[in-house]
């Protein structure tokens, strides 16, 4: 679209990162290319040839005129390396080998590769299968990660990282989301190298009391658990403890969902995620504490830098080596090493270097939303913060300081807004207010929290510091609750499709380049892309105005029918579902947002009769446009056939009562049978058998997910 000159010599790691990341992306979205091992062998040959050409071109092509040859070869080489590395990283591209075993498994031996996470009715943990024993007691070496849900009891709660267990239940493949636009948990796990899960009752597994753990991680988890117990011992309880555990140690299992949502609505959720802010505070605090080592003597300066490196990496280990904290720790390590060798690096290049290293550690980081948000936010701050801060100047230092903090927040939000809308369909309206208040307070909490943990063994002083930290967290929670209570604190129902997301990313990229290069042509390109964005948006609105759909969702213990006409919808269910906000949000909210009907809907109970603009209901019959839907929960049926049967396009069977398709046919002429997920398994099987005998088409929501008619 437009050509700009970028001085790439300042950013070598950006040049390496782009083709490498593109190769990883292609590998995940072209899964069929990994079916044959021959493909991998061919790619290794190509890599060797390219590497040879790179060496030859770097030695013999000296003319600046032909520099592009080396550049093209390097980019192709890195793209194929990224592509191949996904396969080498042992991702199960088709499906886990667990579904393709050539023997009958008797039991599985696995070890815990993460700490357990306590849920309401179970204990969740990620495990790695080590061996499978068959019926003849022969053991087969195996390697596959699975998610396990253990029945909650004293024994399952006592499990820790590294423990080995044996279990007899067969893992099942994780299913796709049953509802349209619902969070894809299967894809989420797949990016972590997991395709199967298993639920284990207490009599289906046994602890082998054998520890097979990484000593570094084992020490990290032990120390974290010790510090969590220490905080409770010092009197930090309830919400204050949950926030302290999250903000100091990256442990958010005890964080209540309602409190989490308040931080999200206030635009301050990043405060609870251990990240660059936390590493930066730790670095500044210890740098100040080690000020006595600031001397002209090289040995003392070297000692200080090495101590700072050790401390920030120790804190990263303590916080579980999450991608967000690894990014900050690696980037800060480059800065410290640059100071040691008296060479100042370019911050964006250090950022790209940390991303490159993290993708080498785990290629799936490329698809982690938190990983993307953290990098984009820092890029926005580095490039946009200074130009934004220059827009306002006051003779009062306090006003300038407030604006400086606000400009950091605005820069981060400008950079992350495409991701926020695309992935979460919402935007925190008062992000500037929450960060203006939260940034200084959270810095005090992090500093005070670290001091509390350091003096935890000193009587009286530890109690005083813990009391101060607890009260500061209480102030944080009250502030967040106040901001969340303000009108329109969070703007919901925002939607952009993939093409609009890409357009916004291109606009963001051009904006960042314009700020750096001051090329006016970039503004013209941004105007063209903005026009294209609104054209796509207008086209989407036209599609929404002409849409007519009936959807029967797949929801546990609830029957929910939705009728969508234009930019309105009519939801039919019972009061239990209407009162369950979390179920509504998780299962169907994203779909309604995509359809543009999130803000314009009506709800009615199953037992109500009504006349809507586009849908009518009388007893157990609903008329939607030209379609007629019957609904039966087993309350009404006839043994004798009626002389006039009601013609139905669809019959929805729901509820736990026994129902016979033959009895329903005494009252209705049914073209299509829909069996809801609330119908028990054995009754579903009976209805399916009847449908097949009578030649009536059917759809089982339990097995096939939501039923959608356009």
Portion of residues in beta strands equals 15-25%
> What do the pLDDT scores average to?
84
The number of domains: 5
Number of strands: 24
Main sheet properties: 8 strands, mixed
Low-confidence stretches: 92-96
Structural class: alpha+beta
- Helix content bin: 40-55%
Radius of gyration based on Cα positions: 29 Å
Distance between the termini: 38 Å
Can you put this structure into words, describing what you see?
- With 710 residues, the chain is of the alpha+beta class.
- The chain has five domains: 8-88; 97-213, OB fold (Dihydrolipoamide Acetyltransferase, E2P), CATH 2.40.50; 219-378 and 432-492, no CATH class; 498-545, no CATH class; 548-709, Metallo-beta-lactamase, Chain A.
- The strands form five sheets. Strands 1, 2, 3, 4, 5, 6, 7 and 8 form an eight-stranded mixed sheet that branches. Strands 15-16-17-18-20-22-23 form a seven-stranded mixed sheet. Strands 14-13-12-11-24 form a five-stranded mixed sheet.
- Helix 14 (369-389) packs antiparallel against helix 15.
- It is globular and about 105 Å long.
- 32% of the residues are buried.
Keywords summarizing the entry:
single chain; 710 residues; OB fold (Dihydrolipoamide Acetyltransferase, E2P); 7-stranded mixed beta sheet; 24 helices
Produce a short descriptive summary.
The protein has 710 residues and is α+β, with helices and mostly antiparallel strands. Helix content is 52%, strand content 17%.
Topology:
Blueprint: H1 12-29, H2 37-60, H3 67-88, E1 105-112, E2 117-118, E3 122-134, E4 139-151, H4 154-157, E5 163-167, E6 172-173, H5 185-190, E7 194-200, E8 205-211, H6 215-233, H7 238-249, H8 257-265, H9 269-272, H10 276-289, H11 298-318, H12 323-340, H13 347-361, H14 369-389, H15 397-424, E9 426-428, H16 431-454, H17 461-485, E10 490-492, H18 498-517, H19 520-545, E11 548-552, E12 561-565, E13 568-573, H20 575-579, H21 581-594, E14 601-605, E15 610-611, E16 615-618, E17 621-624, E18 627-632, E19 646-648, E20 650-653, H22 661-665, E21 668-670, E22 672-675, H23 681-694, E23 697-700, H24 701-704, E24 707-709
Parallel strand pairs: 4-7, 13-14, 18-20, 19-21, 20-22, 22-23
Antiparallel strand pairs: 1-3, 1-5, 2-3, 3-4, 5-8, 6-7, 9-10, 11-12, 11-24, 12-13, 15-16, 16-17, 17-18
Helix pairs in contact: 1-3, 1-13, 2-3, 6-7, 7-17, 8-17, 10-11, 10-12, 10-16, 11-12, 12-13, 13-14, 14-15, 15-16, 15-18, 16-17, 18-19
